[in-house]
Specification:
This protein is mainly beta and 161 residues long. The chain contains one helix and nine strands, in the order αβββββββββ.
């Protein structure tokens, strides 16, 4: 009966090995979603736009500021960035805006005159643009006379085309 302890040991080893090879599985259901994304931001405000005093015999030159930037991110197709003024410019003055080209799937419309009616500044499809320059140009002539300091809000919007 000496074989019994040996046989018992072999059975025990193979029995444990069988348990070690047993498998169990579990599963989970994962739900994913990507919501509409349409984010637009600007950096700070441009400085005061005031034409420099011209030399005798010359008219005023436009005043320009390119110190602020814009950025956007969108996963939507056929989008555009528009701009408008919160109130009209004083008579004899013009404020223009230009957005630097945003990126490969977007194009800039170039320099546009701002008014209380929305103008398209850039168009494109899905994408993003980190800090690109906004250029403002203020134009007037000596014939306009004196214009007291005034503030206009420029409203930029990322919207559907």
């Amino acid at each position: 009966m000496r074989a019994t302890p040996f046989l018992s040991a072999v059975i025990l080893i193979f029995g444990l090995a069988g348990q070690a090879l047993a498998q169990t599985t579990a599963s989970q259901q994962v739900t994913i979603q990507i919501s509409n994304i349409a984010e637009l931001s600007v950096s700070g405000n441009p400085g005061q736009l005031a034409p420099a005093t011209p030399a005798a015999g010359n008219d005023l030159s436009p005043a320009t500021d390119a110190a602020s930037t814009y950025s956007f991110s969108t996963n939507q197709t056929t989008r555009k960035i528009t701009a408008l003024l919160s109130s009209a410019m004083p008579a004899g003055t013009t404020l223009e805006i230009e957005l630097a080209a945003p990126g490969s799937t977007w194009s800039s419309a170039g320099k546009k005159t701002l008014s209380t009616t929305s103008v398209d500044l850039a168009t494109g499809n899905r994408g993003f643009s980190p800090a690109k320059v906004i250029t403002y140009t203020f134009t007037t002539t000596l014939a306009t006379g004196v214009v007291a300091p005034a503030t206009r809000n420029v409203v930029l919007t990322l919207t559907a085309q």
